Amino acid sequence: LTAYCARTFHLAQYPDWENYLFIDPDMLVSTVEYILRHQTREGSFYEVADHPWNRKMYGL
């Protein structure tokens, strides 16, 4: 989802739209940096969770 949003925001940066829609370039940079920090070489993401997944919460 993060990569999809970064791509969408990047594509939405048209000079004609800059008076109506401002996308902070620093936000795009930090989004891509986040992806690069958390993505493995195979393209998957490792799970970073403060709380373990609890099956009882989801009725499983």
Automatic annotation (TrEMBL):
Cellular component, GO, one term: extracellular space
Q: Which Gene3D superfamilies match?
A: 1.50.10.20
Q: Which InterPro entries match?
A: Alpha-macroglobulin_TED (IPR011626), Terpenoid_cyclase/PrenylTrfase (IPR008930)
This protein's superkingdom? Eukaryota
Ranges for the Alpha-macroglobulin-like TED domain? Answer: 1-59
Q: What is this protein called?
A: Macroglobulin complement-related
The encoding gene is: Mcr
A UniProt-annotated Pfam family: TED_complement
